[in-house]
Amino acid sequence: MAASEQSSVPDTDIPEYEYIGVNTKPFRIGSVRDGWLTRLRPKDYSYQQEDKDTFEANFAEAMGISEETMAELRSVSSLDSLRCHAEDELPDTEVVPPDSTLKTLIQRKKRQDHKASLKVNKNRHDLYADELERLIVGRTPKTESDRIPEGEIILTINVYYPAVFEKFNYIRPHMTLLMTGSHNLTELRDAICCISDLQVCGEFSRTPDMAPDFLCKDHFKSAFFFFEGVFYNDMRFPECQDISITTINWAKSHNFPPFTQAKMEDTLLQDLKLKVGFPYLYCHQGDCEHLVIITDVRLVHKYDCLDKKLYPMLTHKHKVLTQKCAVCHLFIARFGKTNIPSIISLFLN
After folding, report:
1. What is the DSSP string of 167-219?
2. Cellular component GO terms, alphabetically (predicted)?
3. Is pLDDT larger for residue 35 or for residue 327?
């Protein structure tokens, strides 16, 4: 009788869709971790690798198959059954046999032939993506103190281009970050790279090659995040100002619901209450506004990068075409005086 009765009070610790396939209702990020840790066994989220015999025994029990069926599966799915070369021959992993019948190798051969037909080699974005993948997959720390603890949560965060870039509005994220629940909002802010922070303060038209003493991010340090009616202000430095107070006062004068404030440096990601899939606001440099969307919240697993020093981890950055010089079409355009004689000599040679 008790099992059939369900409480009419919704469990706010379990994320529910507000709009199917779009975003959830508000919930506390840390409740996802707490909820899973109470429902899972410690071995389900442990980093320890199961030995082969234990894995096969658990697999057979879960699937309800006999030992004879398990032995047949072991034989069919073994690496030896995938060999397409002589046993005593050392294969070249980059060469795909032309007469292979494996679907994966057929597709790989098509991909290799397509790449060989292209005249353009890998650009810097593809090389950077390969480097990111090498950093992410299965990376373990050198010391145990740098290991992410078992049962930690990982958030996937998309940061979009500023609203002034109409070409990129609502299309694709500028960057995607992985962060743990124990990170605070200032670490998220420091991981966001924006061209507005890199602008040069001052007049350098006569000395374009001189390195500036400071950039905009060193001079204008104020910023805030806005999540679910709360302004989280960066107040780490004496120069920081509360740039959200203007919006709060305006909302009061127009009878909007009251907003609250908190310090960015005192707020952990796991303590936030927000909606997954819903756009929020990051504002810096006075009026440079970015959409920030949390797209995933999950427990860390043993195949993640477990080195906490590599987080916040950049997993994606949007490809940007570099503006070439309009005269030579070879070099990247730069600020400064044009040396016409050197360009003419370049083409004459």
Report:
1. GGTTT-EEEEEEEETT-BHHHHHHH---GGGGPBPS--SS-TTSPPS-BHHHH
2. nucleus; snRNA-activating protein complex
3. 35
